[in-house]
Amino acid sequence: MSFVPSVRNPLYAAYEARLAKSLADKPLPRHVGVILDGNRRFAKSRGAKADQGHRAGADKIADFLGWCEEAGVEVVTLWLLSTDNLTRDPEELGPLLRIIENVVDELSAEARWQINPVGALDLLPAPTSAALRRAAERTEGVSAMTVNVAVGYGGRQEIADAVRSLLAERAAGGATMDDVARDLTTEDIADHLYTRGQPDPDLVIRTSGEQRLSGFLLWQSAHSEFYFCEAYWPDFRRVDFLRALRAYGERHRRFGG
Fold it and tell me: Which domain holds residue 171?
């Protein structure tokens, strides 16, 4: 793995290079989940409107994915919009949905990463769900880092959808409720999650100083390491990412033991 220092003042560049070098002998995550938090507060701190903060946050995504790619990360999950956010003031929600549509369109147009929408797409407005599906179709054959775009996502909703899908599948196969209850395993539920077939997140990053998961990847994050960063998402720098990787690499993962 090699990291190319960003163009900064000499002291900053030297610190960033030293951080990158320190990761050479440390384990790195295969799957990184990110709660992109703080866009509205970023805008408010600058006397700007919320949609300007959301646009600044969207502009950060491609840079972040590039950093993950450099680090050899295989899967990234970006939480852009929760199911709870769908009840926001329409004057804010509408522009935010357009921003999300634009960013997934731009990311998929590059054909650099495989875009995989995760969430209850049926709860989204038709143009948003169509943009997400189009991005997935456009990058379906891309053999590169997988980028899960979580829009209209909620951890409880995901588990409920997984159980519903599992029950429908078993019923179609002729199983009774007693059969399902007797044979059900955790693996059965995992096989019906939005992220089925992917490794669980090794590292979950949340920006803006908040220290809670808010329902993000509830099932999959049982053994994840968490890193909370004070910076608002639009202010999140490569050096912040390197610090998160360093913190991950220095932890002894016990997996509940």
Answer: 154-193
The amino acid sitting at 226 is F
Report the alpha-carbon distance of residue 206 to residue 36 in Å, rounded: 6
What are 79-119's pLDDT values in tens digits?
999 999 999 889 899 999 999 999 999 999 999 999 999 99
The neighbour count for residue 142, using CB atoms within 10 Å, is: 16
- Buried-state track 95-130, b at ≥16 Cβ within 10 A, e below 16: bbbbbbbebbeebbeeebbbbbbbbbbeebeeebbe
Shared domain for 65 and 124, answered yes or no, is: yes
Residue 52 lies in a domain: yes
Reported confidence tier of residue 217, pLDDT bands at 50, 70, 90:
very high
CB 201 within 8 A of CB 220: yes
Distance of CA 123 to the CA centre of its chain: 19
Enter the tokens of residue 50. Answer: 């919320």
Write out the catalytic residue numbers: 37, 85
* Residue 87, CA atoms < 13 Å, CB-side half-sphere: 2
For 115, phi and psi rounded to 5 degrees?
-90, 125
Return the structure tokens found at 91.
């004057």
pLDDT in tens, 16-59: 999 999 999 999 999 999 999 999 999 999 999 999 999 999 99
Q: What angle do CA 156, 160, 161 make, to 5 degrees?
A: 115
The CATH number that applies at residue 138 is: 3.40.1180.10
Q: Please report whether residue 257 resides in a domain.
A: no
Whats the size of the chain, residue-wise? 257
CA distance linking residue 80 with residue 94, whole number of Å: 14
